[in-house]
Structure formats: structure tokens, C-alpha cells
Write a structure and sequence with these properties.
The protein has 315 residues and is of the alpha+beta class. The protein folds into 3 domains: 98 residues, no CATH class; 73 residues, SH3 type barrels; 98 residues, Immunoglobulin-like (Sandwich), CATH 2.60.40. Helices cover 24% and strands 27% of the residues. Strands 1, 2, 3, 4, 5, 6, 7 and 8 form an 8-stranded mixed β-sheet that branches. Strands 9, 10, 13, 16 and 17 form a 5-stranded mixed β-sheet that branches. A hairpin with a 7-residue loop joins strand 5 and strand 6. Helix 2 packs parallel to helix 4 and helix 3 packs antiparallel against helix 4.
């Protein structure tokens, strides 16, 4: 459109009548400059400003010198031609910029296509293991620690089930919920036990210090079994006084002598008190009359009182 306006301006321009040679020819040049400015008045303000600066510079080239002589017509003609070339080049540059702007506008902008949503896994809570349980095939005492030296504080009977709380530091012992006192723990021997569930996650419980066991006692009689029935106290029975007895530590025949005593003269009774728990062997005096049996093997528990550990004479 700009080029069409330029051609229209050229066709409507009035002929330029230049003055005679002896007049100032610059007037004619300035008229031609005005025509060129009218042709390019449709240009943008930045392009027009640059063209004006160029025209002013070219105009300076055709001014008369100080003697009053005019400029050669050939110079004027060349100046006009240069102005036409500048205007034509400006029009082409603007048309090129318009074409580039149209091309950019026709190129579609890239569009963002959303992909499938990212699924965030829902955290799963760790499962709590089922508490293991225990039952027994034979009634079993439940104690304050692993062994008979500890007090008995409960019992797990056949048909009952209780929860296992920990593994014992002593082999084959479990720390369980006391069947007789729920909410309190006790130690259960596992010899007759059946465990259900996983016990690997259970803590290991150390036993309390071994308590000082309560001492026990051993008592009995040395008597004459008149009717050989093995029962003391029949009318035909009697008693033996002064029979010597020896209590040795350990399983029979025993090792170290623990104590000795003699039967009384009144009713043939004897006794050993304050005996620590353990295994013992009670012997008769082999240098005295024959008694039955020669010895007794004993297993004394803490605080236990063994009675009727008797020796008899068979007449």
C-alpha cells in the first residue's frame, strides 16, 4: 500500500519550474525536497526522521557557493535520483517488515497438552504383629524368675492360654502375662509348652538376681517294724534310740558331709533344720545294726519341709 501511495504522489506532483541560471537554483532543489517529503509522509515516524536527516545532508551538497554561481543541473538531477532511490528502498524495507510480521502472526503458538496426572502412592501403615500366645500340656508353675529358687506367683493350667511378653534370657523360659494376675508378668518353663505366633520380634528379658533361697528341713524316725508292713505306729512297732545318721551334699552316695545327728531315746525321732535347697544323700551308720534302707536320696526345694524320711529295723 505504501508503494501505491508513492506512485500516486509522483503522478500528482506539479512540474518544477527552475529559475534562470543567474538566480539561486537552491529554490528548485528545495521544491523537489518538499515533493519527496509528501511522498514518504505515510512512513513511520522513526523511518521519516532518518530520511529527513539524509535529505538535509544531500541538500547541503547543492547549495550555491559564495560567488553566486548556480549548481550544475547534472548535480541536481543526480540528487533527485538519489532521493528517489532512498524512498524506494525505504518502502521495500517497510514492506519486508510487514511481510515478516504477517508470517509470525500466521505461525500458531505451541500449545501445552497436559499429560496424565501423576499418582502419588498412599503411604501404608506397617502392620502390627499379632501377639504370640502359649499353652501347656501339663500344669506348669509361673514364677518370679527362671527356676525353683524364685517364688511361685501363678500357674498356667491345661486348657488355658496366655500372651507371651518377652523371651527369657535363660533357655526354654518365657516371660508371660500371669494367668492368675492379668497385667503382671511371670516366668514360665517351656518344657510342656506350645507357642503360637511369631516370637522373633519380642525383646529378651534378663532374670532378676537370684534370691537367697529359704532353707528347708529334713525330719523322720528310726523305728522297729514289728509286722514288716512298712507302716510306723502299729502296736507291735517300737523305736530305736541313738541311731547315727549322716547327711551328705549331692546325689547319692553324696560328696561333702553336711551334718550328722542321732535319733532320740524317747520315740526315735531325728531332724535336720536350716538345710539349703539342693540334692542330698542321707545315710545310716553302717557300723550299727542293719536298717532299711541304707540311704535316702533327697531333693530339697527352698523352704521345703521333708517329713517321714524314715529308717526301719526288721526283727
Amino acid at each position: 500500500m505504501l508503494k501505491k501511495n508513492l506512485n500516486h504522489a509522483r503522478s500528482n506532483a506539479q512540474p518544477i519550474v527552475c529559475e534562470t541560471r543567474h538566480e539561486r537554483k537552491v529554490v528548485c532543489a528545495n521544491e523537489h525536497l518538499r515533493d519527496k517529503l509528501e511522498i514518504v509522509n505515510t512512513l513511520s515516524k522513526y523511518t521519516l526522521l532518518a530520511l529527513i536527516l539524509v535529505l538535509i545532508a544531500l541538500s547541503a551538497c547543492i547549495l550555491p557557493d559564495g560567488t553566486g554561481e548556480g549548481v550544475d543541473p547534472m548535480v541536481i538531477t543526480q540528487t533527485y535520483q538519489a532521493l528517489d532511490a532512498i524512498a524506494e528502498a525505504t518502502v521495500q524495507a517497510i514492506q519486508s517488515q510487514e511481510a515478516q510480521a504477517t508470517m509470525k502472526a500466521s505461525i500458531p503458538s505451541p500449545t501445552f497438552t497436559p499429560g496424565p496426572p501423576t499418582l502419588t502412592p498412599t503411604p501404608t501403615q506397617p502392620s502390627t504383629p499379632t501377639a504370640p500366645t502359649i499353652k501347656v500340656s501339663l500344669d506348669t508353675n509361673c514364677r518370679s524368675g527362671p527356676g525353683k529358687v524364685y517364688d511361685m506367683i501363678g500357674a498356667l493350667l491345661v486348657g488355658e492360654t496366655t500372651e507371651i511378653l518377652a523371651r527369657g534370657s535363660v533357655p526354654d523360659y518365657w516371660v508371660v502375662d500371669n494367668p492368675d494376675y492379668p497385667g503382671h508378668e511371670c516366668w514360665l518353663w517351656g518344657k510342656y509348652a506350645t507357642v503360637s505366633g511369631d516370637t522373633r520380634h519380642l525383646p529378651i528379658r534378663s532374670a532378676a538376681p537370684t534370691p537367697t533361697p529359704a532353707p528347708g528341713s529334713i525330719r523322720g524316725y528310726v523305728y522297729i517294724d514289728g509286722n514288716h508292713n512298712g507302716q510306723r505306729g502299729d502296736p507291735v512297732d517300737g523305736h530305736i534310740s541313738g541311731a547315727n545318721l549322716f547327711l551328705k551334699e549331692g546325689a547319692c552316695p553324696g560328696t561333702t558331709m553336711f551334718a550328722s545327728t542321732s535319733s532320740s531315746s524317747a520315740d526315735g525321732r531325728y531332724s535336720f533344720y536350716n538345710v539349703p535347697p539342693g540334692k542330698y544323700c542321707l545315710w545310716r551308720d553302717m557300723n550299727q545294726q542293719t536298717l532299711d534302707p541304707d540311704f535316702h536320696g533327697l531333693n530339697l526345694d527352698p523352704g521345703e519341709d521333708l517329713t517321714e524320711v524314715n529308717f526301719r529295723y526288721l526283727p
